[in-house]
Amino acid sequence: MRYDDQFKMSAPLRYTLCTIGGKWKPSILWQLSSSDPAPVRYGCLKRGITLNVSHKVFTEQLRELENDGLITHTNMNGQSLHTEYYLTEKGRFIIPFIHYMRDYGFLFGNVRTALPLESTKGRWEGKSIIYEHVCPTNPELSLQITFNIGIDKETAASDSSLLDFHHLINASEPDKATSSDESDHE
Prior knowledge:
alpha+beta; 3-stranded antiparallel sheet; 9 helices; globular; disordered C terminus
């Protein structure tokens, strides 16, 4: 494949990563999705993320999300001190990815939070978690991600040790040292 073709094929991925990339953008989107469709005031949104982010950086991240069309804001009573933020319809289509990324981090990042996996924003269906968004004005336009984790919600809730996928992944991968030694002797 030529470099030009590779570049064109990866452009949508780069666009998506630039749109949601940034230290606080995924967290902002997560917070807004938690209250959607209700608005979130600037102060509540910032406190929900962390107190360690500066006003300048946080505002820049909000502006970038707004410029990319994922969020919008309104000034209550025409005052900038009372700003409320909302997800746009375009922003709602990225939310299943944000929820999937949270659960992916939970399963593979060796990070356990106060919110267990069974509290996922996805919908449990057997041994899978389904993340989806359907456009309310055009139901034919939808996004669905299926994450087959191999255990059901009740099992995940009763035995969290089953959610440690590191040993399962490592056991399923061939031993790299052994395979390279064998290829040297052929």
